[in-house]
Amino acid sequence: LLDGEYEFIEAEILEKSDLLNKKIKDANFPENMRVGAIVRKNKVLIPRSDFSFEKNDLVIFLAKRENLKELEDIFSVSSI
User: Fold this and answer.
1) Which pTM was predicted?
2) DSSP type of residue 47
3) Of 25, 57, 63, 79, which one has the fewest beta carbons inside 10 Å?
4) Which of left, alpha, beta for 54 (phi over 0: left; psi -120 to 50: alpha)?
5) Is the torsion defined by CA of 64, 65, 67, 70 positive or negative?
């Protein structure tokens, strides 16, 4: 998006993730990153700030390219 300035990223919440059972509002994500959707058990959810991540959730992010390394440190990340 925007000539490569932003990317959509998908990442899975793994058993050892620091985000497991954490609410979005408590996740301390980079300022230029937003959670757009969650795929949980084949259902697409649009989360609010009090949404809690569960194991095997597939999280769809919009992130500024410069923040991708930070996301890689949190998850095993793959671009869409």
Assistant:
1) 0.80
2) -
3) 79
4) beta
5) positive
